[in-house]
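User: Here's a chain of 458 residues. Predict its fold as C-alpha cells.
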Amino acid sequence: LARRRARRRRPRLVLEAVAVLVLTAAVAAGVYVWQVKPLTSSWSLAGSETQNVSRAAGSQTQVSVAADPAHRSVLFAASNDSALRTVRLYTSRDAGRTWTSTAGPSLGLEACSRGDPSVAVDGHRREFVAFTVSGTCQQYDNAPYVVVATRAGLAGKWHVTRLASKRSSDFWDDYPSLAVAADGRVYVSWSRLLRWTYEGIVVSSSVDHGQSWTQPRLVSSRLRFPRLASTTVAPDGALYVTGIDARLGVWVARSADAGKTFRLARVAPLPGNQAADCSTASGHPTPFQSIRCLGPNPNVSATSNRVFVTYGVGSPGRPQSVRVGVLDRALRPLWNGPVGPADAKADRFWPASRVDATTGRLWTCYYDTSGDSSRAHAWYTCTSSGDGRHWAKPVRAARDAASPDVLWEDARVYSYGDVIGYGGTTSVAAARGSVHPLWIDTRDLGGRKQEVFGATLH
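Assistant: Prediction complete.
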C-alpha cells in the first residue's frame, strides 16, 4: 500500500518540480529582459546631443522650453526642483549642444516655488518664466499665487512680479502658461478661484517687458471647472488658449483683441474626463491641478490659418493615446484623430507640441511604449505633420526608455496629505528646422531622483 501511494505521489512531485523550473525561468527571463537586454522601440533613434540637462541633486520635473525667435542658437528652459526654494533654469547658447543649469529667481525668505513653470523668450533676448508660489513654503498650501519673472538676457537681473492683487487666504491662482507675440506683448493664462465654488481661466498681458500687467480677464464663463490652460500666439497676433473642462472636454478659445474678448469652441469630448473631480473638494475647486488632473496635457499651437490642439486620452491601467484636433481661424473643426502611427497595443502619454514658424510643421512629442508589449518601457518619441492629419514616422529622442509606472506614480497626488506628487509635463521647442524636446528621465531613482533630459532632432 505504501509503495502504491509513493507511485501516485511521484508524478505529482515531477509536475511541481517542472512548474517551479518554468516559473524560475520566467522570472529570470523577465529580469534579463528588463535589466540586461532591454526591449527595443519600434522607432529609429534620431536624437543627437542627448544629455542630462539638469545635472542636479533632487528631483527635476515639469519642464518647459522655448527657443529665442531672433537668435537661432539660444534655448531657455525651466523645471521644478525638489531641492530648491525656487525653480531651476536651463540655458543653451549653442542650439542644445551644451546647457547651463542654475537656480531660478530668488523669492526671498518668505516664499517658495511650488512649480508649474512656463517659459518664453521675446525677440530681444528677454527671458520670461511664470510659476506658482507658496507664500508659506508649505507643500500643501491652499492659497498659492502666480508670479512672472523676467530678465534681459543671461546676465540680466531678475524682476519678479505677482500677477493680480493679493486676496484672502481662501483664494488661489494656479498653473500658468506663457506666450509672446511678435510685437513683444507677453501673455499669461492661468486658473483662478473667483468664487468659493467657481474657478475660471483668466488672461493678463504686458506691453512693457513684464514690468506691469493688465487686470486678469476671464476667458469664458461657459467653462465648468476649467483646468490645465495652455497658451500660444499665432503669426497674425491672435491669442489662443486651450484646456479641459467638465462640460466641453477639450476646448480652445481665440482672442483677436489682445485678450479682451474670446470666442470659445469645443475641440473634442474627453473620454474618462475627470475635470469636475480631479481637483475639487465638496464642490470647492482646489489648486494642485498639475498633480491631480494628470494626463490630458492639452497644448495649443497655431499657424496663420490653422489651430492645432494636442491632448492625451486615458490613464494607467487603461489604453492611452495622443490625439490632435485641427481647426481653422474661425475655430471651425476640420479634423480630429490620432497623432502619428503607433503600435496597436502601445500606450502614448504626456504630449507636448510646438509649431516651427519657419517650416509651418507641427511637432508633437510624447512617451511611447511601441515595441514593448508589456508596456513597461516608454521611449520619448517625436513626430511631425504639415496639416495635423498626415504624420511622419515617429523617431526616438533617446536610446534609453523610462518607466511609465515611475513617471505616473511620482507625478500625481492621491489624497489630502499626500505631498510626494511632482507633476507630469514635458516640452518641445521647434525653430528653423531644429527640434529640441525636453523630458523626464527615470534611470537614476536614488532618493526619488528624476532628471530633465534633452536632445536635438532635425
